[in-house]
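A reminder from the course coordinator: this example appears on the midterm review sheet, so study it carefully.

Given structure:
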């Protein structure tokens, strides 16, 4: 069963930030306000977007944290995404690879709603 809490948790964790949603008595979404993406770090927006596209590489939406100077997410499969100085890096368990800049990926993430 869908609940207001479930919807708001999804919007907070996967769509980039807090939002407001309500259900009608018929269990349909009555209204929803877009999340305030300006309050979420840009790297988190990119990580959320990458997780939505490459869920096999980036599963389970871990919490972002500081890892050796990178603002990063470390995934249970050993992969990691990291941002440092507006550059995005991928770690596959063996080596760190520069995959691009924040500006390279942000337009696509924004277009997808992140």
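Designed residues:
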């Amino acid at each position: 069963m869908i609940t207001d809490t479930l919807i708001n948790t999804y919007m907070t964790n996967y769509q980039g930030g807090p939002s407001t949603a309500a259900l009608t008595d018929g269990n349909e979404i009555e209204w929803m306000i877009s999340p305030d993406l300006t309050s979420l770090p840009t790297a988190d927006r990119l990580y959320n977007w990458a997780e939505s596209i490459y869920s096999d590489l980036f599963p389970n939406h871990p919490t972002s944290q500081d890892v050796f100077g990178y603002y990063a997410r470390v995934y249970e499969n050993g992969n990691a995404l990291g941002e440092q100085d507006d550059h995005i890096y991928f770690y596959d368990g063996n080596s760190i690879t520069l995959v691009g800049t924040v500006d390279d990926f942000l337009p696509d993430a924004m277009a997808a709603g992140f």
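The first strand starts at residue 20 and ends at 23. The longest helix spans residues 42-53.
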